[in-house]
Amino acid sequence: MSLKERVVIVTGAGSGIGRGTAELLASEGAKIVIAEINQTGGMDTLEAIVSAGGTAKFIQTNVADEQSVRLMVEAAVACYGSIYGLVNNAGIELEAELSSMTVADWDRILSVNLRSVFLCSRAAIPHMRREGRGSIINIASVHANFGFERYSAYDASKGGIVAVTRTIALENGPYQIRANAICPGYIDTAMWASWLGAQPDPEKTERETRQWHPLRRRGTPLDIARAVRFLLSDEAEWITGISLVVDGGMSARFFGS
Ligand SMILES: NC(=O)c1ccc[n+]([C@@H]2O[C@H](COP(=O)([O-])OP(=O)(O)OC[C@H]3O[C@@H](n4cnc5c(N)ncnc54)[C@H](O)[C@@H]3O)[C@@H](O)[C@H]2O)c1
């Protein structure tokens, strides 16, 4: 499953799933581009990778911004010469009812979560086509497959990611570029912790969410990183256009049961 010497951009790699993914891929010899808006998070990931003997470059990036993404991809190519992989992971969430949501909030969630996939893929694909190979992994969510009250913008952004993944796969298959989405369930990260902290009884919710999973635990960034590693690699060379649910079996349960 060698990713040795392959250049992989990981967006939102300053925390959580993105950091776990960047560290795992770097440990396999991939050259990582940490495309992250948060300077401290990006530098921390860079330091972790380099001190473990890996290769990485931190490029401060706002994935929702066209110019910032263009400059990031240009800098990545200038530094490493090519791009093999793109992990569109950066994302934010918002809990708000649709009936009272502002246009600014809706646009912010859709821009960071979905427009970013368009911008980063559009910028990276010409370099992948030049190489005649590439693999794009888009981090969606189980929110792409189910409705969650007070998450309309997030749900729409994640459903959009799964849809656009299929189109990217169709348009780029002839160039040997694959595109797949991953739908994580509940993963212990800063995003999860902030959701949990906002619940009326966090300890009770923490216990309940473990029980929702047949495997009786929530996921870790490594659980998702391993799925990213597989889909990025040549082991998955005939897999494109799919969305892979990685959720400890949570989606197998009918919630009324
Ligand atoms: N944690 C979960 O339970 C869970 C479940 C399903 C899907 N996801 C998805 O996984 C992805 C990663 O989530 P996480 O839980 O690791 O969250 P996290 O908050 O720990 O990390 C998200 C990272 O994205 C960065 N980021 C935010 N806006 C950005 C921007 N405009 N440009 C560049 N970077 C930006 C943040 O600074 C942060 O480092 C997200 O897309 C999220 O929707 C998470």
Question: Can you put this structure into words, describing what you see?
Answer:
By secondary structure, the protein is α/β, with parallel strands linked by helices. The chain has a single domain, classed as 3-Layer(aba) Sandwich (Rossmann fold), CATH 3.40.50. It is 47% helix and 15% strand. The longest helix has 29 residues. The chain starts with 6 loop residues before the first strand and ends in an 11-residue tail after the last strand. Bound molecules: nicotinamide-adenine-dinucleotide. The site of nicotinamide-adenine-dinucleotide (NAD) has 29 residues, from helix 1 and helix 6. The site of nicotinamide-adenine-dinucleotide has 29 residues, from helix 1 and helix 6.
Keywords:
Rossmann fold, 257 residues, 7 strands, binds nicotinamide-adenine-dinucleotide, alpha/beta, single chain
Summary?
Helix content is 47%, strand content 15%.
User: How many helices?
Assistant: 8
Mean pLDDT over the full residue set? 97
User: What is the 3D shape?
Assistant: globular
Specify the structural class: alpha/beta
CATH superfamily caption: NAD(P)-binding Rossmann-like Domain
Q: Per DSSP, what share of the residues sits in E-state strands of 2 or more residues?
A: 15-25%
Bound molecules: nicotinamide-adenine-dinucleotide
Determine the fraction of residues in helical runs and give it as a percent range: 40-55%
Distance between the termini: 39 Å
Instruction: Please report the first level of CATH classification, the CATH class.
Output: Alpha Beta
The number of distinct β-strands equals 7
Order of helices and strands: EHEHEHEHEHEHHHE
**Annotated CATH architecture:** 3-Layer(aba) Sandwich
Radius of gyration: 18 Å
The tally of domains stands at 1
